[in-house]
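[Protein data]
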Amino acid sequence: MTSFRKASLGLLLGALPLAAGAVDSRTGGLTLLETADARATALGEAVTALTGDLSGVAYNPASVTTLEYAQFQSQFETSPGDVRTGLLGGGWTNQRVGFAASVAYLDAGTIEIVPTLGPSATRRAQQDFVGALSAGAALAEGFRLGVTGKFLSSRLAEEASATALAGDAGVLINLFAPGLRLGASAQNVGAGVTYRNVEDPLPTFYRVGLSFEARSPEEEASTAGLGGPWYMQMGQGRSRFWGGADAIIDRWGAVVGAVGFEWELARRAALRLGGRVGGEDPGFTGGVGFWLQRWRVDYSIQLVDELTDRHRFTLSYFWRTDGE
């Protein structure tokens, strides 16, 4: 098994989100990290206290009850080494309880197997699928809890297979000042993933984050001429600033800091910047988002080095469940 894992590890590290830069080489099940969308990636993954859409649910399931609308999202990405990843997800809430589901996959390209005896062969390096179900509840005004269950199916070099179960849990709290929130979560807690009787621990992270959100005055929204359908109303026609900062510790004790900032112009466009400090691979991220009525297109770029820069697009669709 060890040769299979080492053969694919280099490909995987080039295809994972920013947080993977802090993943210890002893860790397995890295596809559990492939639930990041373009908005979260552009914000440096400093989204433990992010609210409003599915971008935060992969990091803190308590945020599922803050979805502004029902949402569906899709994503596909290619990375160096012929690595391909994809994501489909959806979520719904009535502000008291909320639910979300997602499916992610990773195809790590091909590798050449050279046995001691016999001819060489080209095989798929790794093919993984991750299914996740999230549920959350608002237990009191400004106090939310959530959990996620995950199932991982993995196959290395078309020979070694494994499955694993993992779970997330999180809390989201509104603090004393308007727009100020505290989030905390544990990600990918589980026994490990085992290939041929060799167990690798899962990429477990413990996160705590603060976020602050401020919107422009109502007067600005009324003079911007943004009346019309629901997706341009409900206070979303105002410009908005969001900032977040996370501290992340992995199961080995390594600590990483992440920051992210978003400026949104009148529910039409958004500019995002983020980054990570500490760890072996500090990196910077950026991105934009554009609303097209019920649709939003998000783009992110992750600057690490010439081989691992990533460009990610996510397409989201929003709808109301009250028939409007």
